[in-house]
Write a structure and sequence with these properties.
Elements (H helix, E strand, L loop, with lengths): L1 H12 L1 H15 L1 H16 L1
Helix pairs in contact: 1-2
Length: about 45
């Protein structure tokens, strides 16, 4: 598994990985997205 984590770390340090991190942070701050995720979690927890 160490190989998998090192590949993930390398990707996150790459320009494409940094771009995806920025996009994820931006989406996480959006109230609409947060509400959608919260709704999905509530549905999942009920099962």
């Amino acid at each position: 598994m160490a190989g998998l984590f090192s590949k993930i770390q390398r990707f996150l340090r790459s320009p494409k990985g940094r771009q995806l991190q920025h996009k994820a942070r931006k989406l996480a701050q959006d109230p609409h997205t947060r509400r959608k995720v919260g709704d999905a979690l509530r549905k999942f927890r009920r099962r």
